[in-house]
Amino acid sequence: RKQRDAILDGGDSNWPHLKYDFLQPNRIKDIKMRPSSHPEYDPRTVHVPDDFKQSLTPAMRQWWEMKAKHFDCILFFKVGKFYELYHMDAVIGATELSLLYMKGDFAHTGFPEVAYGKYAAALVERGHKVARVEQVETPDMMGERVKKMIKPTKFDKVVKREICQLTSKGTRVFTVQDGESVGADASYLLALTEKECDGGKSLYGVCFVDTSIANFHLGQFSDDKHCSRLRTLFAHYPPAQVLYERGQLSPRTQQVLNTSLTSAIKEHLAPESEFWSSTKTLTTLSEKKYFEDGTPEGLKPFLSDSDSLGLTASDEADLAVKALGAVTWYLSRCQLDQQLLSMGQFTTYKPVDHEFALQEDKKSSDVITARHMILDSITLKNLNVLENSCGGTAGTLLAKLDHCSTPMGKRLLHQWLCSPLTGIKSIEARQRAVTELIGQPDLVQAVRGLMTKLPDLERLLSRI
Questions:
Q1: Are 206 and 323 within 8 A, CB to CB?
Q2: Residue 210 is inside which H or E element, if any?
Q3: From the CB of residue 150, how many other CB atoms can be counted at a distance below 10 Å?
Q4: pLDDT per residue over 11-68, tens digit each?
Q5: Across the strands, what pairs with 372?
Q6: Which residues pair with 216 in a beta bridge?
């Protein structure tokens, strides 16, 4: 709702969109005619009256029909070789991108198509969502289409346009349009669902994905009343965008989201229709044939052994698969589902103290060991491992050690710092590797020069 008000506000007070009755805060409704006071009001959409659309030009009618379904997005509307922004979108383009207003009765800005990556990245980094609208037919194709119609209206006599991609902080991908605008850090899209248990504990299902490399992580785990494991997950894999089921999170979990993820986009999804059940999730994955070679190996541990069709989640993974459903729905809305899910890259997420807890449950007298040190969110914060008290990296261990020459190395170093080695053999092996490198400075310098020129191979591979 705050984002909606921000979109409507700003610019010349005489702009027509500021005076439209259906956009006034006390009259605005979503596409299903629900007022903003309704508990199921969807701020991502807006109702645009039919009589208003009848008064528009064909192209502007197209724009409003898309805006009605994507009211939370800034439309980059393709017109020839330019992307144009209208009304409230144009105001944001002028104020945040320094685009110049064009002459006309309503707010209108634009830029050449070659600058898409630059301007889209700038808005996404500021927390906006960008919808790229492309022309999907030429004027000649439009003419042929109209000729075949019995009684074409003026609204038929315009080239067809479609939203080809929706980009937000959590759904950035490494494409030709994006160019080099995507930074090295991983930006996770995370879905979270919760089931409250006795004793103030919770059972969480999570699915998070770095859309730039199409690697999906699924997990289900119990947590204490302080949400310790959930906080640690957020510290190790900081999400840029969080999806959760409307009305299904406990107050303490909601508080963790608000305090631990202050800069992340938080979006609630409608139960079942958007945040799918595990059964609907697996059925949809099967029906849409995302996986040409059958169920990916990484997804099989989450399926029930009693269902040979793979349409039922195991009892221990129902919430995790449910979270995958939310991510799948959202990626479908962004038109990224086929591109990312077809990669079939699924891994199991386990809390950092998982090995410790397993051995402790065995009540063995043996020494409890684990391959990695357990660094929870509080430890990472107090030791300034990844972030300082101001939320930056100055003075942190990460800033001190990060001399990586490639984006892939930077992301790997982040994970190494979150989970330091504890095994003597592994530590000594890494020390020997460092010693070898220190002993050959000329070779290291030459290799560094070559590696610095490398593109982000990990992200490029996801496009093949």
A1: yes
A2: strand 202-210
A3: 4
A4: 556 899 999 999 999 999 999 999 999 999 999 999 999 999 999 999 999 999 999 9
A5: 421
A6: 209, 346
| Cα–Cα distance list, 181 to 7, 26, 225, 344 (Å) | 24, 39, 40, 26
**For the chain, how many helices (H) and strands (E)?**
18, 11
DSSP secondary structure, 99-154, as one string = PPPPSSSS-EEEEEGGGHHHHHHHHHHTT-EEEEEEE-S-HHHHHHHHHT-SS--T
In degrees, rounded to 5, the angle at the alpha carbon of residue 290 between the alpha carbons of residues 211 and 168 is 25
Find the helix or strand (DSSP H, E) in which 397 lies. helix 397-401
**So where are the chain's domains?**
2-167, 188-351, 355-461
**CB-CB contact of 380 with 418 (8 Å):** yes
Q: In this structure, how many other beta carbons lie within 10 angstroms of the beta carbon of residue 60?
A: 16
Shortest CA distance to 6 belongs to which of 64, 88, 69, 66? 88
Q: Which fold has domain 355-461?
A: MutS, DNA mismatch repair protein; Chain A, domain 3 (1.10.1420)
- Out of 1.20.140.10, 3.30.420.110, 3.90.550.10, 3.40.50.970, select the CATH number for domain 188-351: 3.30.420.110
- For helices 251-260 and 228-236, what crossing angle results, to 10°? 30
Give the integer Cα–Cα distance in Å for 239 and 135. Answer: 33
Summarize pLDDT for 369-403 with one digit per residue, the tens: 467 788 888 888 888 888 888 778 888 998 999 98
Q: State the Cα–Cα distance between residues 448 and 451, nearest whole angstrom.
A: 5
Q: Determine which of 3-17, 217-231, 266-280, 348-362 has the lowest per-residue pLDDT on average.
A: 3-17
